[in-house]
Amino acid sequence: MKADICCQQTQGGEMGSENIKADANDSRCVLFNTHSEDHRCVVILTVKRATGTFSLAGCVFMLFVIWLLRRYHSLAQMILSLTVAAFFDSLAYVMGESHPEGSLCDFQAWWLTYFDWSALAWVCLITLNLYFNLVREMSTSKYEIVYHVMAWGVPLVMASLPLLKGSYGPAGAWCWITDDHVAWRFGIWYVPLFTLILLMICCYARIICVANNRMQSWLGTFNPERERRKVSLAEEIKPLKWYPSVYLLVSIFPLINRLHNGLYPQDPSFSLTLLHVLSAPLHGLANAFVFGLDRDWWSLLSPTGMQLALQSRLCDRTHIGEYHAGTVRYTQADLVELSDDEEEEDNGNTLFYAPHMTLKERGP
Question: Tens of pLDDT along 293-307?
Answer without folding.
Answer: 666 666 666 677 677
